[in-house]
Amino acid sequence: KQTVDTGSASKGITLVDAYGKLVENVGAKASQGKLDSAATETILANAKGARDSLSGVDLDQETGNLVKYQQYYTASSQIIKAAQETFATLINSL
Length: 94
Fold this sequence. Notes:
Oligomer: single chain
Helix content: over 70%
Largest sheet: none
């Protein structure tokens, strides 16, 4: 029976047709959401590329440089510590 969406403009639709219409609308909204998400990700990637090209800084490269400099600093501090220990030993042996 036509029990759903009864009004002055239409005679209504059956429950099965109403459920089919609902599923169709949800599927269309989900598909549109996926397309919108993909478009937004593309816009974000383009914006990041434009920002990086203007600033001239590659964040991945800068992160790598920071790690490298941290390792240099650690190595230098170990050399200085070994030199201090050596001098302390020499001075104490006198």
